[in-house]
Write a structure and sequence with these properties.
GO biological process, one term: UDP-rhamnose biosynthetic process
Helix content: 25-40%
Mean pLDDT: 87
Largest sheet: 6 strands, parallel
CATH architecture of the largest domain: 3-Layer(aba) Sandwich
Structural class: alpha/beta
Protein name: Putative rhamnose biosynthetic enzyme 1
Strand order of the largest sheet: 6-5-7-8-9-10
CATH superfamily of the largest domain: NAD(P)-binding Rossmann-like Domain
Strand content: 5-15%
GO molecular function, one term: isomerase activity
CATH class of the largest domain: Alpha Beta
Number of domains: 2
Pathway: Carbohydrate biosynthesis
Pfam families: GDP_Man_Dehyd, RmlD_sub_bind
Bound molecules: NADP nicotinamide-adenine-dinucleotide phosphate
Amino acid sequence: MQGKPLPIHGDGSNVRSYLYCEDVAEAFEVVLHKGEVGHVYNIGTKKERRVIDVAKDICRIFSMDAEKSIKFVENRPFNDQRYFLDDQKLKNLGWSERTTWEEGLKKTMEWYINNPDWWGDVTGALLPHPRMLMMPGGIERHFDGSEEDKSASYVSSNTRMLVPPTKSIGSPRKPSLKFLIYGRTGWIGGLLGKICEKEGIAFEYGRGRLEDRSSLMADMQNVKPTHVFNAAGVTGRPNVDWCESHKTETIRTNVAGTLTLADVCREHGLLMMNFATGCIFEYDAAHPEGSGIGYKEEDKPNFTGSFYSKTKAMVEELLKEYDNVCTLRVRMPISSDLNNPRNFITKISRYSKVVNIPNSVTVLDELLPISIEMAKRNLRGIWNFTNPGVVSHNEILEMYKQYIDPGFKWVNFTLEEQAKVIVAPRSNNEMDASKLKNEFPELLSIKESLVKYVFELNKKNIAA
Ligand SMILES: NC(=O)c1ccc[n+]([C@@H]2O[C@H](COP(=O)([O-])OP(=O)(O)OC[C@H]3O[C@@H](n4cnc5c(N)ncnc54)[C@H](OP(=O)(O)O)[C@@H]3O)[C@@H](O)[C@H]2O)c1
């Protein structure tokens, strides 16, 4: 219409199934009224068309010379050659495609010509390889304390990360930092807030619910954080077995919610520190118990025995596509608060029977401050967030006996016996913490950390 060139990625031989929008709308209606709950229906057409033919047809309608107007540009990476959906199941409900290609294309063109105000400026669609579709009036936010335009608080552009680089590491107070933390009422979220207070870091807790995008957007605008910490998630009460009988609730927060927050952060150019889980692995032939061969960051999850773990593994996989996310694989967290029922030590010291298996665990008192340092260093990607090495249930309880209660006794049972008193199987594994250790050479091995951050401290408290 404007005489601009019509760019085509590649040679235009890619094939797509084009369906007129009113036929699609009718398909939705048919599915709504006749479809079966829980079923999936493909909406498509078997009449496929090459991109080049579509472009030629458009030129014809506008009386343009296709030879002159069409410009072939470099293909998109991984541009699919063809998608082909079988729509028979939908047809069985009584739906059929009613609009011919020629008629549909003509109607579409006429609609665009007659309704220029509806869409506004859509010339961006003529840009080959659009990387940054700036919304009208959009600005980029700067994190050096200045903003190009204070009236607009966030960007719609999401192609560049604008998290500030850390100039000096470990300085006690950085007034430019402002953390937004999700999980105010939770164990890890609560501890993070306390550490921020201690370290003099400005922070606010998020008010939004993870699955409610607009409430997260409001948080971003109100708080204007430099970093976001996600310690929100459903973990189940009294334990993860809850997730087995509350699958949609689990998906809502742990899948839809976590992904929504990551996406909102990306849209705002923010790094999200995500407290994830290492309970997505189990010992196998390549990583046998007691071998010292731990799962690495790049290993694919192999434990989906519980619904909780299954959703966490799926989300981890999807979050890999977000370059603004730092995934921290926490395992069987332990803290110095031995009264907290979530603490792994508190749990196993209260069980009537415990299994005895070596596992990698996370000593929160040592590792949560490290997560803050990781945010300052702008680290991303997946991290095994555990102390190096493994510790077994019996080794922990031996320490408990030695430091806390000399008269403490416990009874072991086997995994098979345990299976009778829990709903879903639990993950047992060793994680390879060398990536974290390389970044933080001061990181203590699990047994040293337990002594320093948990048992010595509680021993002193008891003696005091
Ligand atoms: N504790 C563990 O054993 C363990 C181990 C490995 C990984 N993790 C992971 O670390 C994260 C934090 O664990 P935690 O032990 O601190 O959990 P927690 O004590 O159960 O706290 C969860 C927090 O998430 C919030 N929350 C739940 N659903 C939410 C939603 N839809 N929107 C916003 N907030 C929501 C809760 O707030 P409300 O009370 O308002 O719902 C609560 O503040 C979780 O993702 C968990 O999977 C925990």
